Batch of 2 targets.
Target 1
Amino acid sequence: DDFIVLDYPDLCSLFLAVDAELRLIDMILAQVDLTVVSPYVVSGPVTGNMFFGRDYELKAIMRTVQDRSFAIVGGRKIGKTSVLTKVHRLMEQTSGFSAFYLDCQHVTNYKEFFDAFAIKCQVEIGSTSPDVLRHVIVRLRRQYSGTIIVLLLDEVDSLLRYDIQNQTRLFRVFRALSQEGLCRFVFCGERQLNGALHDPDSPLFNFCNIMRLSYLLPRDARRIIQEPISEMGISFEDAESITDGIIELSSCHPNLVQAICRMLIVRVNERGNRIIRLDDLDKVGTSDDFRDFFLEVTWGNATPLERIVTVLMVNQPSFTVADVKQALADRGKNISNALIEQALAGLELFSVLQKQGNLYSFAARSFPKILQASHLSEGLLESLEQDE
């Protein structure tokens, strides 16, 4: 157990304080282990008081979901689940919506989907046939008369992969239910969902409004950095320089911003002086822990070809498909334009690259430097040369 000790002067100052609650918080923070009370989240969705930005996405969904379904796509830890859970909270607080959130991360077949759906919606489902969903939605509409039924389905890639192997029976029902106005959907996913949204043969083609999540706006990243740290009673040696440094190091990737702040709090807590110094940020940015975390977040789900492309182009400020093809050819690999474009599209989805016209460049300014410092490039190029 952690004990917070208040002595006589503490109690006196508490009784005399204009804001006793704020004064008590200051006393607690002065004694507590800061890593225990740190609000920064590096795994899972962020809590309500740590949700910053994404105003456009939230307004677009809340204002038009009665007319259209939505699909939110992006790389891992970019904030898809946080957006979806925020939408769920907003709908629970807004009249006219009956929203049901379902985490499909471990849902890999129809039975698992309907079992989870029955528990979440508190309805009995006697079949695992996709067609039964229509009857379930009709029952929910009767039960929640006068509201819009919205199904918020998170991490649908595994379920979609299974559905594709079964003639996309379930997602065809999803599309029909949405087109008939019986309910709306907000899907979240990564590569599988993104591919289906752009496949003319998929029931998801022209079904949803597509939102691709990428980095936060700098103003929102600044709020994530400064507001929680200030509330914890921690100060900056040079607030502007340290904030700018975190933004530069993270490129405003929400999970990286939170990870850097958490690592800084660990250093401050170990030192015990409640001041974040400039050299703290330097040490975090060059640490193996941060480098590994950075690459896992931004590069973790990349395919071998996508990784090789980033390594080959790491020193190029911008490049085209032809440049990538030539770099691969110089290494003895004849890769088709279609496969290269697919790899570049994957890297763009995961916010490793950004595209303007026919030119690609690294979206995260710090990515080339961190990749080179990791020494992973040499190993990948060696494996490319040895690969027959």
Target 2
Amino acid sequence: MPTPVFLTVDTEFAWRHHRAGLDLARVYERSLEPAGVGVTYQLARLRAHGLKATFLVDPMPALVYGLDPIKRIVGTILDAEQDVQLHLHPNWTDARLDDRSAHAPGNLTDYDRSGQQALIEAARALLVDAGAPSPVAFRAGSYAANPDTLEALAALGFAVDSSHNGSMQPDFSKVDLAPTHMAPLRHRGLIEVPVSLIEDRPGRLRTVQICALSASEMRAALGHARVAHHAAVVIVSHGFELANRAGTAPNMVHVRRFDALCALLEEHQAMLPTHVLGAVPPLPLDRRDAPMKPHAARYYWRQAEQLWSNIVAERAA
């Protein structure tokens, strides 16, 4: 049977650009459309390869910058016939334009159950006001979710969460599942669809993410999932991830990875079809999918690639 693939793009204003005092136009550009390789570029590549993706949009910057920029990005995604679901960084609730250092606690796990539920409900209302269909899927900012988060989501009628990331435990991700658990399951009232992982060195987990794995590692991880009959694969990216951190130039290492991934998924779409979190197909919920084991040659190749990325691509003006 085919292995469903969920391409997920966390779509948010980067706090670093707000903190730097940039105006709205530059915060938007450098966070969402940096250097011509942002959301619009990604949507175009997805369309060219016939792929589906979920863009998890954080609407909370609307509390500072107004709803118009959120309407703009939501409209861009929906016009491309891709999926919009909910993302949430709560630090924006106390952010201000006249004091760029002001912010609320930054992780949902900093709040109790009722506080989390109120934040999620408010964020959902903002996203719908920005033109999105009422979301049914969620990912916490920085993967900072815990059992209270899942129970709050279930109480609010959400069907799917994709916050569990074992590589981020215990500092951020606090969902009560084992770090290596990456198979979908019914948990605390909804379907948890964890982020996929590899074991890049013995005992060390790494997220299957555009900026985290080389193209060869992603190819191998997808092959491993297919051969091992994994219930699903969840790949992470960000709206700004294909550019340097300043948002001023493409990071061509990351662009090539994204393009290679799209081409690979198009080539193998019969066995690795892309789906969206807003319409999750029936999935087996009893699997014990295991991360791919370390491979020294791929690891050291990525280390060399990352060195080039950090020295050259990240410093490009």
